[in-house]
Design brief:
84 residues; mainly beta; 1 helix; globular
Length: 84
């Protein structure tokens, strides 16, 4: 895994607990978790009510809250939705 150098990061978003789906995406690292999930929901027609989400970085067990950005993530991380 390498750190994002161009302002974007490649992530896998695991929504299997909610929708039984996983997405591989390239997103701006400056985006907050809430913005990220809302855009994914809107883009894929998932109709998620994104209020105060948290995601877990599976590789290191770290939680990222709704206002946290994706800036410190490395390419290729798996994000698992913990709460929406």
């Amino acid at each position: 895994m390498r750190e994002c150098m161009d302002g974007y990061v490649n992530v896998s978003l695991d929504l299997t607990l909610l929708l039984n789906r996983q997405f591989d995406l390239r997103v701006p690292s400056s985006m907050t978790v809430k913005e990220f999930l809302q855009i994914v929901s809107d883009s894929y027609g998932l109709s998620l009510a994104v209020i105060n989400p948290t995601v877990r970085v599976v590789q290191i067990g770290q939680l990222v809250a709704s206002t946290g950005t994706l800036e410190k993530l490395k390419d290729g991380v798996l994000l698992q939705l913990e709460s929406i």
